[in-house]
C-alpha cells in the first residue's frame, strides 16, 4: 500500500478550526490501519479571521495555491458559517468553485463536508439548498442504499447532523448523484458522484466527538440569552436520556417564562450528567476506510498538480 497524502482545506469558524482538524485527523488515523496517510492543511481566501485564528493558520497551514502547485491524492473540504443569504454572494465563493473545478481533474477523490457539500452541489449541478422546517440537530439512523465503494456491511448507520438546510433527494438523483444513506426523519446523509474524481458529499458530521453536539447546543443557548438569536434552541434529538431530556424541556419553559435565575448553571448541571459516548465511531471509521480503499485502488500516480 503506497502512502497517501490528503489535503485538508479547513473553512470552519475560528473557534472550531483546531478541533475540526483534530477530529478529521483522528478519524483518518483510525480508518487508515497500516496504510501511511498524511493530512496536510490548507486555507482558502475570502474568509474573515480574528488575530488568533490568523496566527494559528499561518503556523500550521499553507495557502490553497500551494495545493494547486503540489497536488494531492485526495482532499477533504469543510464547511463554514454562512453570512450571506445566497452562497454565491459569499466572499469566498469564487475561490471555492475554483477548488471544486481543480479537484475534479487533479485528485482521485474528495470529501465535501456540510456547507461545502451544499456549495459543491450548487456549482456542479445548480441544486439549491432548502431551509429545513427546524434545525436538524441530533443523532440519526440512516438506511444504507448505495454501497458500491463504501463497502457498508450494516443495513443502517448512525450519524450526527447539525444543519439548518438540506438538499432534496429527488433533485440529487435527477442530476446523477447517487444516494449513499438516507432517512425519512433527517433526509439525505451521504451522496456521491464520479466527476471523474470520486466526489463524496456529507450533510452530516461523522467526524464529531461524543460531546460536539452538546457544545453546539450550549453555545446556541448562550447566544439566545445574550440576545444574539431570536429563539431558544431545541436540544439535539436522540441524544439525551429520558430524565435529562425532560429536564432540558422544563429548563426551556422556565427560561422563556423568565422564571429561571441561573439558566447557564442549570443547563451545565443537566448536560454534565449525560454520558457522551461516540456511538457512531464504528460507522464513521467504516465510511472512511471505504473511501481510502477506493483511493488506493485507483491505478497510477494520482497526485496531479495544476
**Which series of helices and strands comes N to C?**
EHEHEHEHEHEEHEEEHHHH
Rounded average pLDDT: 94
Count of separate DSSP helical elements: 10
Oligomer: single chain
Overall CATH class of the largest domain: Alpha Beta
Q: How many angstroms does the end-to-end distance come to?
A: 25 Å
- Gross morphology: globular
CATH H-level superfamily of the largest domain: Class I glutamine amidotransferase (GATase) domain
Helix content: 25-40%
Strand order in the largest sheet: 3-2-1-4-5-10-9-8-6-7
The biggest beta sheet is recorded as: 10 strands, mixed
Total tally of structural domains? 2
CATH topology of the largest domain: Rossmann fold
Please give the number of β-strands. 10
Strand residue content: 15-25%
Cα Rg: 20 Å
Structural class: alpha/beta
Runs in which pLDDT lies below 50 for 5 or more consecutive residues are: none
- Identify the CATH architecture of the largest domain: 3-Layer(aba) Sandwich
Amino acid at each position: 500500500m503506497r502512502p497517501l497524502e490528503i489535503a485538508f482545506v479547513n473553512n470552519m469558524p475560528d473557534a472550531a478550526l483546531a478541533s475540526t482538524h483534530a477530529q478529521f485527523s483522528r478519524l483518518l488515523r483510525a480508518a487508515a490501519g497500516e496504510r501511511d496517510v498524511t493530512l496536510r492543511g490548507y486555507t482558502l481566501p475570502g474568509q474573515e479571521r480574528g488575530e488568533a485564528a490568523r496566527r494559528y493558520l499561518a503556523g500550521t497551514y499553507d495557502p490553497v495555491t500551494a495545493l494547486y502547485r503540489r497536488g494531492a491524492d485526495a482532499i477533504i473540504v469543510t464547511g463554514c458559517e454562512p453570512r450571506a443569504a445566497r452562497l454565491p454572494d459569499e466572499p469566498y465563493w469564487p475561490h471555492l468553485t475554483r477548488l471544486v473545478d481543480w479537484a475534479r481533474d487533479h485528485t482521485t477523490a474528495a470529501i465535501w463536508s456540510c456547507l461545502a457539500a451544499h456549495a459543491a452541489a450548487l456549482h456542479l449541478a445548480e441544486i439549491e439548498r432548502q431551509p429545513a422546517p427546524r434545525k436538524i440537530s441530533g443523532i440519526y439512523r440512516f438506511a444504507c442504499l448505495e454501497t458500491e465503494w463504501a463497502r457498508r456491511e450494516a443495513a443502517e448507520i448512525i450519524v450526527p447532523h447539525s444543519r439548518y438546510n438540506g438538499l432534496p433527494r429527488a433533485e440529487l438523483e435527477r442530476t446523477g448523484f447517487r444516494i449513499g444513506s438516507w432517512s425519512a426523519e433527517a433526509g439525505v446523509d451521504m451522496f456521491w458522484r464520479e466527476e471523474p474524481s470520486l466526489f463524496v458529499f456529507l450533510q452530516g458530521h461523522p467526524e464529531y466527538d461524543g460531546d460536539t453536539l452538546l457544545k453546539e447546543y450550549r453555545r446556541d443557548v448562550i447566544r439566545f440569552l445574550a440576545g444574539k438569536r431570536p429563539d431558544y434552541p431545541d436540544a439535539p434529538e436522540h441524544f439525551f436520556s429520558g430524565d435529562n431530556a425532560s429536564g432540558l424541556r422544563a429548563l426551556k419553559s422556565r427560561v422563556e417564562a423568565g422564571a429561571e435565575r441561573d439558566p447557564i448553571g442549570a443547563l451545565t448541571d443537566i448536560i454534565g450528567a449525560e454520558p457522551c459516548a461516540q456511538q457512531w465511531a464504528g460507522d464513521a471509521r467504516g465510511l472512511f476506510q471505504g473511501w481510502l480503499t477506493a483511493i488506493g485502488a485507483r491505478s497510477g500516480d494520482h497526485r496531479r498538480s495544476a
